[in-house]
Amino acid sequence: MSRIVYVNGDYLPEEEARVSVFDRGFLFADGVYEVTSVLGGKLIDFDGHAARLQRSLDELDMRRPVEMEELLAIHRELVARNDIVDGLVYLQVTRGAAADRDFAYPDQEVAPTLVLFTQSKPGLADSPAAKVGIKVISIADERWGRRDIKTVQLLYPSMGKMMAKAAGADDAWMVEDGSVTEGTSNNAYIVKGGKIMTRGLSNDILHGITRAAVLRLAREAQMEVEERPFTIDEAQAAEEAFVTSASTFVMPVVEIDGAPVGNGAPGPVAARLREIYLEESRKAAI
Ligand code: PDD
Predict the structure, then answer these.
(1) How far apart are CA 145 and CA 161, in angstroms?
(2) Given this structure, which CATH class describes domain 4-122?
(3) What residues are labeled active site?
(4) Angle at 75 between CA 53 and CA 244, to 5 degrees
(5) Reduced to 3 states, what is the DSSP secondary structure of residue 127?
(6) Nearest C-alpha to atom 20 of ligand 1 is from which residue?
(7) pLDDT score for 54
(8) CATH architecture of 129-284
(9) Where in the chain is the domain with CATH 3.30.470.10?
(10) Atom 3 in ligand 1: which residue has the minimum CA distance?
(11) What digits encode the pLDDT tens for the residues 8-41?
(12) What is the pLDDT of residue 1?
C-alpha cells in the first residue's frame, strides 16, 4: 500500500504528490521544517515543535500556512491513514512558488507550500544503537550563522554524515572556535563529575525540543546541569557523552575521534535520562 502524504490541503498517494519546480524550497532552500516523533500512535512534544515552527517562520517573515490546531489535525490524520505506531512525522513549509526565480521574497499573497509525510519506524524507542552507543568524529562547523532557525539547508549536515560514514563512525560533532556546537542533526552533551554539560542556547545551535525536555527532566530529578560550551578534548576525557533529538531521543556516544568515552560503553546518566524522557514523553503524548 502506498504512503499517503499531505500537500497543500490534499491527502494523496505519494506517487501523485507534486510541488512546483518554481517552489522556493527547491530553488533557494527557502523553507523550514519540523520532525515530530510518534510512539504508540501518539505525537511526542507536539506543542514544542509547533512553537519552534512558528518561531522559524517569524524569523524568516514567512506566512503560516494553516492554524496550529489544523496542523495538529493533519499530523493525526497522517498517523492514522498510514497506520503509524512508532515513527516520525516530517513537516515542511516553504515560501511557495513565485511566478519566476527572484532572490527577493515574493509578495505575501503567494501561498506557502505545506508538505507533511510519515516515516514508519517500528520499535523506534528500542533502537539497538541505544544499548551500545554511537561513534562520532569531529568536523569543522561550516554551516551558516542562523542555526537557531530550522531551515531545510541541510547539505553541510549531509556532508558531515558522509564524512562520519567514511571514517567508520555514525555521526559527526561540529566544532567552531574550539568548542562543539552540536551534532549533524542532534544536540551534544557530556557528563563530567556527574554534571550534565551542553552548549547554551544562541544562534549557534538549533534549540532542540528534546534538549529542552531532557534538561527540565534532569533538573527535576536533581541532576546538575551546566549550559556551557565544551571542547573535543574535554568530551574525550568525560565520563559520558550523548546526543538528543526527536528521532534518537537520548543516544549515548561511546567514541569520539577514535577515543573511547569513559569505559567505551553507554553510561548510567544517559541511560537514566533516556528512560525518564521516554517514560514522561509517552505519558504526555497526544
Ligand atoms: N534534527 N540540532 C540539529 C542541527 C538538528 O537538526 C536537530 C533535529 C536537533 C535536535 O532537535 P529536536 O530535539 O527538536 O529534534 C539539534 C531532526 C530530528 C532532523 O533533522 O531529522
Answers:
(1) 20
(2) alpha beta
(3) 150
(4) 55
(5) coil
(6) 185
(7) 98
(8) Alpha-Beta Barrel (3.20)
(9) 4-122
(10) 185
(11) 999 999 999 999 999 999 999 999 999 999 999 9
(12) 65
- pLDDT tens, residue by residue, 57-72: 999 999 999 999 999 9
Alpha-carbon gap, residue 152 to 143, rounded angstroms: 12
Cα dihedral 256, 259, 261, 265, rounded to 10, equals 100
Residue linked to cell 521516554: 278
| Ligand 1 contact via 96 beta carbon (within 6 Å) | no
Counting every residue written for the chain, the total comes to: 286
Q: Tell which one of 119, 217, 245, 249 to mutate to probe ligand 1, the residue whose CB is within 8 A of the most ligand atoms.
A: 245
Pinpoint the alpha helices (H) of the chain. 24-28, 46-59, 68-81, 128-132, 155-166, 209-220, 232-236, 268-284
Alpha-carbon distance of 258 to 231, in angstroms, equals 15
Atom of ligand 1 nearest to the CA of 184: 4
The parts of the chain modelled with pLDDT lower than 50 are none
**Model pLDDT, residue 108:** 85
- The one-character DSSP state at 199 is P
Q: Which three cell numbers stand for residue 224?
A: 546538575
Between the CA of 50 and the centroid of ligand 1 the distance, in Å, is 14
Cell numbers describing residue 29: 532552500
Q: From ligand 1's centre to the CA of 264, what distance in Å?
A: 25
- 148 CA from centroid of ligand 1 (Å): 11
Return the number of other C-beta atoms located less than 10 Å from residue 173's C-beta: 26
pTM for this model (two decimals): 0.97
Compute the mean pLDDT over every residue in the chain, rounded to the nearest whole number: 97
- The grid coordinates listed for 154 are 541541510
